[in-house]
Amino acid sequence: MRVSGVLLVALLAGSPAFAELRALRFQDDQGLPIHSEVQVCFVLGTRSDCRPVAHAELADLPAGFSSFRVEGPDHGPLSAKRSDLKPDAEGVALLKVPRKAELQILGQQERHLALSLYSQDDESFRTPVFRTEIQADGSLKIPAGDHLVALSLAGKAPDLHLLSAPPGSRKSLTYSAREGWSLLLRCRSAKSRQDLSGARVELTGAEGFGAPGAHPVQTTSAARGLALISGIRHALADATIESAGLLAQRVSGLSASPGTFAFREAELEEGGTLRATILLDGAPAKDVACLVLEVNPNPMGPASEPLIRYEGRTGADGICKSGKLPTGPYTLRVRADGGRSFLDRTVAVASGEETPVEVVLSRIRISGTVLRGREPASGYVVTLSDSDEIKPNATRRDAEAEATSDEAGKYEMVVWKPGEYFAILSSPEGSPATFRRLWLDRDEDDVDFFVEESGVGGVVMDEKGEPLPESSVYFTWNQLSHRMAGTDAKGAFFFPVTESGEGEVKVMKSGYVPAESMTVAVRPDAPTPPLVVRMKKAAVIEGRIVSSAGLAGGAMIQSYRTTPAGVAIFLGRTTSKPDGSFEVAAAEAGPTSLYVSGAGCPLTSFVVQLPRHDVSVRCPELPASLELTLKDPLGKPLPGRTVLVRAQGSFIPASVLIEHLGQFRIQAASDGQGRLLLVGLAPGSYDLYLGDVTSPEMVALGSPEGFLTSTSLAPFTTVEVEATVQ
């Protein structure tokens, strides 16, 4: 049922020939005259004129009213505009004002409960349509309609209910007192925007922020797609929503202040499928492996293993078909044999559609010889990467083909399509030796590699002569070739070279001062002496991170120094060990700002004045969250806007904020409703600025441009702020 308690319910016309409005006549939803008193309030410009009506008709109408509202102890409320009124031939407009419903609250036990009603169609659930204190006997009359009911007691989580109350009906609800906060989810189809009833919802604590001993909570969405969970004790929570025929959706970073409830919408995608037809030599290719991979488009450091979304093999028809996939870009990887070669193809899956892809495999055999000086070179690795499918921060694993030279220096490999490839030859130790571009379009091709017998190598040690493994060595050769390799367990490195010439070596390692660059020359038929690189220990901060749950292993730590102009300069990044210990680069002079997040730690900054080796970083016990809504002067939401966040007087670097929110799968930009969720923050004072209007440097100079708002966040609270952007 749908009975509006605020909007116009019924305006009945008597005669098709309308006369000038002279009076209002009131009936209830059954068509019976209303004889009990109602209050009619007229809107006249900026003021209201309220009048009691006791005999079902009001003839004394104020001139110039634009709208009015009718409510009494047993009827209404009903709101209407004057332009909606259709008087009959006698100038009387007939209005139907629905009877109120009777509601009995059980389990109240003389507690001072407050009742708030929201329309189940409400888009935000911010402002109730009806609110009252419940009397000692627990009985009251409420507007008829389909409501979300929030029963609130000071210091307790709102007890949420869905209630359908037809006019004149009698209903009852039982109040249950619970600790914490509550959650209201609306589940919808992303494609049709239809509400989803019967969707399965499971709520768990966010990693590091869950309540001790709390178990997952399951519920099911009801009418209007609404799912209710009352009494959540987690500081931050995640919800997983599933519905038949749609892809599961995860909503992360859920929070609200104790004694309040949060509202979120979850839009479930229909998803799409991928249908790949694989052809080899013009015929369907049977038993070919097909993988659909999700590649991280913006990896921090070397790319991680891609997520496998589908894995299967072609049938006799050469077709492999994925299950449902979320909308977006993927890599289709086709592997025609068991060797170390494959073909990658970038594809895009659309919601509700089957995306067809045809992949034509052309077997191209590549072979050759690797020589070092005049002798065969064994153990050298040759990789070929398709220039059309280069991945961000790609590693050796991402190359389309790989082979290792044997004792005779021979190697063989296969690629599966003609085109341009990047060939890299690496030494047995993993150092890149040479790089070249190749165009491959024949069934067979020979590609030989030559490196000088004498390359550039050496060892990296600290000031005490101890080897430094995992140092980064950057090598520039003849001002044309740029390579990078890491030192082994003995601190050694080696770069084969393909020709005589001169090069430059630079070495860096976290926690050490970068070594001065060294120049080296390789001459024909002359050995090149090994380089010895000694590195000085840099200023570092060593310490341990402790969260409310104990030692915080796996926390993200980033260090910065701030210039007098307010510019944050990145120094280092690390992750705390299982025992909470960490070591990170520090400023050589002046204070260092540490930003800590994850593993139960809210996003917190700490200022360390001098490099130290005994720092104890204790994270706040409880996080706070901020829900910011951006609108233009007309009240329209502003999507896609970013903010700069200043916490306790210091700006949080944008990269730190992005990575922090990424832990909760939250974008660092406002969504389609203009809403930006900043969750898991440390309690304290915050200033917000528009990211595309100002900068920390401009703010440091006193510029007010881009300022949005200031607020204070208390532990375990969620503050909602709405800002108008001019």
Task: Report on the architecture of this protein.
The protein has 726 residues and is mostly beta strands. Strands 31, 32, 35, 38 and 39 form a five-stranded mixed sheet that branches. Strand 6 (67-71) and strand 7 form a beta hairpin. The two termini are 42 Å apart. The relative contact order is 0.06. The model is unreliable at 2-17 (pLDDT under 50).
Number of helices: 2
| Largest sheet report | 5 strands, mixed
- Portion of residues within helices: under 10%
Percent of residues in β-strands? over 45%
Distance between the termini: 42 Å
- Looking at the structure, what is the overall shape? elongated
Question: Which structural class fits the helix and strand makeup?
Answer: mainly beta
Number of strands: 61
Instruction: Give the C-alpha Rg.
Output: 35 Å
Rounded mean pLDDT score: 89
Q: Which spans have pLDDT < 50 for at least 5 consecutive residues?
A: 2-17
